[in-house]
Design goal:
The protein is mostly beta strands and 70 residues long. Helices cover 0% and strands 49% of the residues. The protein starts with a strand and ends in a 7-residue tail after the last strand.
Length: 70
């Protein structure tokens, strides 16, 4: 099941993603993918994190060392 209420909060050279775990208890983890530039059909994205699904219902991830404006 897909995460619910996904939010992206920009920072200085970073972004914080936060979401609520779906009600489906079978979800064990979430993967975060990233791609810089234009996405075209067939473009492969890089998995930058695998995050265990948090039983507390709220999950988050901060990607750092990014370039502002990209």
């Amino acid at each position: 099941a897909a995460p619910q209420n996904l939010k992206a909060t920009p920072g200085n050279n970073s972004i914080t993603l936060s979401w609520q775990r779906p009600s489906d208890k079978d979800v064990e983890f979430h993967r975060v993918y990233m791609h810089e530039g234009e996405l075209k059909p067939g473009t492969k994205m890089k998995c930058i994190a695998t995050i265990a699904a948090n039983d507390s219902f709220l999950n988050s991830f901060e990607a750092s060392k990014l370039k502002n404006g990209k």
